[in-house]
Write a structure and sequence with these properties.
By secondary structure, the protein is an alpha+beta fold. It has helices spanning 2-62, 67-96, 110-127, 147-163, 195-200, 211-214, 222-232; strands spanning 106-109, 131-135, 142-145, 170-178, 181-188, 236-242, 246-254. Residues 160-161, 164, 188, 190-191, 193, 201, 206-208, 213, 218-224, 247 line the site of adenosine-5'-diphosphate. Its main location: membrane.
């Protein structure tokens, strides 16, 4: 009788601790939703005044002014554009973390996305003296995905490859279909990432403590956006890197057809 009482007591205790954990999980989920809404609201509120600022800067840039005013206006322009980029990143981070807005996948030709991104960002890579190589099979690599998000994903990876690769380096974008998945690889010959940093790379706001990397502008949001986009597509993100040698970011997405 004593044992039964003891066991019953344990069952009750277990049930109570299960209840507590369950409540904790619910509270954390509610906090996460709140955080997402907060980020979305703040970034949305930032965007409108910023658009007005950028518009007025353009008007000022068209005016004949002296060199002091011109250089101040140019500095304000850079600052405003940087802020606008941060607001965009925050808005996107909230969107891709929102379970109420799942992806609406359609066939997306990854080769076209790579071409489009390079059309926009290729000049900047060339200006820095970074060679760009694209390797894709004859047959198009088509993923089931949301086009805008995949464009952003590729743009973030290419942007990082550029930022963290010194002049004279090389960035290789490689596409393939492997094990029934669409594979996109972005390899650079840049700074590389330490094993400790690799573990935190996909966390929001994480930036490496490497001073050379920190000298580049950034928010630490780019890779967390990449990671969330891939995850919500049911894909996987992997990184392989060696300090001083370079990095490879590998993204696997569901293949179309
Ligand atoms: P950001 O570039 O704005 O700092 P990210 O989330 O895109 O934010 O990247 C987080 C950090 O990971 C960067 O600060 C950088 O230290 C490191 N990192 C990202 N991509 C690379 C890369 N291709 N080579 C070396 N380091 C990288």
């Amino acid at each position: 009788a004593l044992d039964i009482g003891h066991d019953l007591g344990r069952v009750v205790l277990n049930a109570r601790s299960f209840e507590r954990e369950h409540r904790l999980v619910e509270e954390l989920q509610a906090l996460d939703v709140y955080k997402g809404r907060l980020i979305a609201t703040v970034s949305h509120e930032l965007k409108n005044p910023l658009a007005a600022i950028v518009g007025h800067i353009e008007i000022l840039q068209d005016e004949e002014t002296g060199p002091v005013v011109a250089s101040s206006v140019a500095a304000i322009d850079r600052g405003a554009r940087r802020l606008a980029r941060v607001a965009d990143d925050l808005l996107l981070l909230a969107k891709v973390g929102d379970p109420d807005h799942p992806v609406v996948p359609r066939p997306v030709d990854l080769g076209d996305v790579v071409d489009d991104v390079l059309e926009l960002q290729g000049h900047s890579l060339a200006r820095k003296g970074i060679e760009v190589v694209v390797e894709k099979p004859e047959k198009p690599v088509v993923a089931m995905a949301e086009l805008e998000e995949i464009e952003r994903l590729v743009s973030n990876l290419v942007g990082n490859a550029e930022k963290y690769t010194p002049a004279g380096g090389r960035v290789t974008l490689c596409l393939a279909v492997e094990d029934g998945e669409a594979l996109l690889e972005c390899t650079d010959t840049g700074l590389g990432i330490s094993p400790a940093d690799q573990e935190q790379l996909f966390q929001e706001f994480f930036r490496s403590t490497n001073p050379v990397a920190q000298a580049q502008p950034g928010t630490g949001l780019g890779l967390s956006i990449v990671h969330r986009i891939v995850a919500r597509h049911g894909g996987r993100t992997e990184v392989e890197s060696q300090l001083g040698r370079g990095s490879t970011f590998r993204v696997r997405l569901p293949v179309a057809g």
